[in-house]
Amino acid sequence: MQREEHFVLLLDSPASSAQRASVPVPVGLARWRARGGERSQVEFEARLFERDLRVQQVETVDACAAELVWREWRAGQGRTLRARAEDGVLELVEWGRRDVVRERLSAPAPVWFALHLVEAARVGDLPRSLECFDPLGRRVERLEVRANSLTPTLQLLRLNDASGACAGEYQLEGEALSEFRWQAGELRARAIERDEYERLERDAAAARENR
Questions:
Q1: What count of other Cβ atoms lies within 10 Å of the Cβ of residue 163?
Q2: Exposed, middle or buried, 17 (CB in 10 Å: 0-12/13-18/19+)?
Q3: Second label for 38, Cα 20 to 30 Å away, from 1, 67, 165, 182?
């Protein structure tokens, strides 16, 4: 099974008055690919137009181990982090600094990666709390999972960290991801069709060439 979903990244601009709705501003694009089977792989790639920032996250999970590769590209610099969870240990290797950083973290409980967490939520297969690896903070954090049915086919999945702050919010329509945000904030992703994604991608490329 293989799935591909496309998103526009929107920045919700504050309204100028209480009577006028805020206007979302397109600031980037994202793509989500998933392939199931005995060795499942989920890939997420996002690009922010103005910051010239591109992020890619690839997760691979099988019966023996789970591995994540996180890459960032921006003007003049980049970063790559590989995390591998196996036999109760999380091994980290990071490139992009002056020296290669290596670290081993104890992970006695099953450690989730964010993309596979959402894949499990699509079929309602999540515990109420779990340990999830954060590639930005390079740490494992406990998250509380809250799922609310908005309509018979629409579900809102919210992840809260230990302080109660939002660590992610995902809106699922059936098994399709229709909208999400990483944290409580103004940046969110909304599902779009492939042709709209390709049009916005062409427009962004033309804008970069005309700078």
A1: 6
A2: exposed
A3: 182
By the 8 A CB rule, do 166 and 158 touch? Answer: yes
**Secondary structure of residue 114 in the 3-state scheme:** helix
Which helix (H) or strand (E) segment holds residue 202: the answer is: helix 194-209
β-strand 111-112 against 129-134: which pairing, if any? Answer: parallel
Phi, psi (rounded to 5 degrees) for 170: -130, 130
- Report in angstroms the alpha-carbon separations of 177 from 13, 32, 62, 192: 23, 9, 23, 10
Please provide the size of the chain in residues: 211
Q: Output the pLDDT for position 1.
A: 61
The reported pLDDT for the residue numbered 16 is 43
Mean pLDDT by 10 residues, the chain (211 residues): 92 58 82 94 93 92 94 87 93 87 87 95 90 92 93 94 94 96 88 96 84 69
How much is the pLDDT for 210? 76
pTM of the full structure: 0.89
Nearest to 59 by CA among 116, 119, 134: 116
Radius of gyration of the chain (CA): 18
Tell me whether residue 177 is exposed, middle or buried, using C-beta atoms within 10 angstroms of its C-beta: 0 to 12, 13 to 18, 19 or more. buried
The answer to whether the beta carbons of residues 30 and 19 sit under 8 Å apart is no
